[in-house]
Design goal:
The chain crosses the membrane at residues 20-39, 170-193, 221-247, 262-289. The protein is α+β, with helices and mostly antiparallel strands and 299 residues long. The chain contains eight helices and four strands, in the order H-E-H-E-H-E-H-E-H-H-H-H. It has helices at 2-50, 67-82, 95-105, 134-145, 157-198, 201-209, 214-251, 259-289; strands spanning 53-58, 87-93, 122-127, 150-154. The protein is rod-shaped. The chain starts with a helix and ends in a 10-residue tail after the last helix.
């Protein structure tokens, strides 16, 4: 009879542990998924911002006999622009390239349209993402315009502001959902642990009544919590990266290839899983340590 009772208790304990691990894994899977989305959304936001360019123009009025001298000055100016703090990437566009681009944009291939290259040479500047901010774009333009040889800098400020604001709104929503999932992770994991500790409330109280210290009682529960939290986090991470790998293969995009960010995400998910599990275990166990024996039947 005693053997059957022990087997029943062991089965119930295994079932309880499996339930807790699955709950932790599911919650951390969702939390990690939001982390991956946030990382990639930030990277693609920066990529889109870098496609918004400003054009720095050279002086178009000069004597043909000075063309070699002007070409050398433009090359020096181009090198200076490349080293400026707001500049992510700079591309030199010669007068010939500018004329060809103009013909393409107008849908005309005839060379006879222009008797000569009437468009000035310029530098197409892709700004760093932080300088696409409407509050800093004017500062970036001033810095570029201050370079000797640059006579004018033009940009589509309306488009930049609109794109920047839309990307900022999207990132805020994603960040908001990530915080929400973190709160849900805390609540759901805490509830799962509380139910597990609740089933052991009589064992906890019995240990206390026979003279065991609170630290001694807490120790095995904390160790078990660390193990369950780690197992749940590992299962959640394996499922997360399995789904993400399948998704990226299906759409044919590798998304962000930044191993450092993935490493920190793994540490975050693992840390959150263990931390919440341990804290929930301590709080739930401490509650029953402070509870009277008679109240255990109504807790």
């Amino acid at each position: 009879m005693a053997k059957s009772v022990d087997e029943f208790n062991k089965k119930r304990l295994r079932s309880s542990n499996i339930t807790v691990v699955i709950s932790i894994a599911l919650v951390l899977f969702l939390l990690g998924l939001m982390g991956l989305i946030l990382i990639n959304a930030q990277k693609y936001s920066d990529y889109i911002k870098e496609q918004l360019v400003v054009n720095a123009y050279f002086d178009e009025n000069y004597d043909a006999k000075d063309s070699l001298k002007i070409a050398k000055l433009e090359e020096e100016t181009f090198k200076k622009v490349q080293t400026l703090a707001p500049v992510k990437k700079a591309t030199y566009i010669s007068r010939e390239m500018a004329s060809q681009e103009a013909k393409k944009s107008m849908g005309i291939d005839a060379d006879a349209l222009f008797e000569e290259n009437i468009f000035p040479s310029s530098i197409e500047v892709a700004l760093k993402p932080e300088y696409v901010d409407p509050a800093k774009i004017d500062e970036a333009i001033k810095i570029i315009k201050s370079v000797p040889g640059i006579v004018d800098v033009k940009n589509d400020s309306t488009l930049m502001v609109e794109v920047y604001n839309n990307l900022t709104k999207i990132l805020r929503w994603i960040l908001g959902f990530s915080i929400l999932f973190l709160v849900l992770a805390v609540v759901l994991i805490n509830n799962s642990i509380r139910l597990k500790i609740f089933s052991k409330r009589f064992i906890i109280k019995t240990m206390q009544l026979v003279g065991a210290k609170r630290r001694f009682i807490l120790k095995p529960f904390i160790i078990e919590a660390i193990v369950l939290g780690a197992i749940g986090a590992v299962i959640g991470l394996l499922a997360l990266f399995g789904v993400w790998y399948y998704f990226t293969n299906q759409i044919g995009s590798a998304f962000v290839q930044n191993n450092q960010q993935y490493f920190w995400l793994i540490l975050l998910v693992l840390g959150v899983g263990i931390l919440i599990t341990v804290l929930s275990t301590i709080v739930a166990t401490w509650r029953f340590l402070r509870t009277n024996v008679d109240d255990l039947y109504y807790s």
